[in-house]
Write a sequence for this structure.
């Protein structure tokens, strides 16, 4: 019984992390244009080191451990579009319009079926 509970808990945690990642990608419009993606990456470059530092300070306060200071993250000055494969771009654009296309096609199919049954 207990191993099943832990298996279920692991599954739920992994599902939550995956769902959160998908929501974050959708919310930040990472599947949009490369300019938007570049802006989000620059924002993350500014926010993440501060968040990691604050979390490490919190862990130090709670546990009494002394963590060494992390080195500064490297700076990258390149556009994602320059290094992104055109196949990836095509696939991501197809994935980003898939829900609306599925709705459109199902609506067309429903209309076709209604016409055929008259």
């Amino acid at each position: 019984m207990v191993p099943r509970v832990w298996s279920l808990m692991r599954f739920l945690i992994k599902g939550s992390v995956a769902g959160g990642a998908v929501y974050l990608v959708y919310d930040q419009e990472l599947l949009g244009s490369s300019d938007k993606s570049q802006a989000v990456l620059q924002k993350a470059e500014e926010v993440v080191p501060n968040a990691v530092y604050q979390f490490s300070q919190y862990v130090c306060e709670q546990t009494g451990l002394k963590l060494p200071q992390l080195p500064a993250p490297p700076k990258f000055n390149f556009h994602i579009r320059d290094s992104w494969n055109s196949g990836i771009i095509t696939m991501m654009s197809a994935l980003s319009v898939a829900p609306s296309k599925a709705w459109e096609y199902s609506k067309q199919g429903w209309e076709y079926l209604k016409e055929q049954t008259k």
